[in-house]
Amino acid sequence: MFDKTRSGQIDIFGFSALWDFIQRWRALFQQYDRDRSGVISGSELHQALAQMGYNLSPQFSEALVRHYSCRGARPGIQLDRFIQVCTQLQSMTQVFRERDNAMTGNIRMSYEDFLSSAVGRLM
Where does the record place the EF-hand domain (predicted)? Predict the structure, then answer.
């Protein structure tokens, strides 16, 4: 994201942008870590995603927490995984919106088209 030349390296400006990016996500994480446990629970994640404009079920939020929780650690999503979840949701939402021309919340696409879009956004 911050390697504008795609050289595998970032310059001081890229590093500064990365630092600011992480600090903004950390502040958001701390805002929703209401019990100050150092992890975001399913209900806390659901509240965060809802305030970000995602209309997702509590069950989906819980499934994200189960998937992204570190094994052997206390249940919940730590900061690095919170950033990963949110940035991936943003990318996938952008792919969806590009194809939802009528803004109905539904699209039709082939599996290969979906994979191509997903890989292009996540890699």
Answer: 20-55
7, part of any domain? no
Q: Which domain holds residue 17?
A: 12-120
State pTM to two decimals.
0.77
Q: What is the DSSP string of 61-78?
A: HHHHHHHHSPTTSPSSB-
Phi, psi angle pair for 89, to nearest 5° = -60, -40
For 12-30, the pLDDT digits (tens) are 888 898 899 899 999 999 9
Residue 44 pLDDT = 94
The enclosing domain of 84 has a CATH number of: 1.10.238.10
Q: Specify if 2 maps to a domain.
A: no
